[in-house]
Amino acid sequence: MDDWLGVVGHWAEDIALELVGGVQSNFYAKSAAYTADDLLPDAAVDKLFNFIDSTDKGTPIWFLIWDLEGGKINDYAPDATAYGHRDALFYHQAYAVNLFGRVDDKIRKFLTGLNTIVAEGVGRELGAYAGYVDPALGDKGPELYWGDNLARLQKVKKAVDPKEVFWNPQSVRPAA
Fold it and tell me: How many Cβ atoms from other residues are within 10 Å of residue 88's Cβ?
């Protein structure tokens, strides 16, 4: 760190980790991958911030961050690897944490509401980041995670892991 604010931020992070770093917690996360065609119109941005301002989140610990993509990530063709969002400009990652129990419906509805407003604003459901598995996506999760690469990945899965040794509730399934 070479600036005062950076050092203070680092100290605050260290203190927070000392205080609650070992505390078990439950969290829920949702994501959305934005391309150049998916920029939110002003009315949708206003609706999103009004929703954030007026909705009971169910927890005081929640985050909505926008992670920039692009650069080297976008230098590769979308079908060059499993990663299906080479055209993404940025993601939004929404998290809500409950330190005192399970993630309840109020928390889930808040995060789902964020994604719903975005989907309505751009006119379609956006892709999702596979690193934040979202059980609420159900069977459409793999398509949102891997996009047009899913069919090819299902063939690979059939060839190298037909018995699904490597599995999670929304992982790629072997091709039929």
Answer: 24
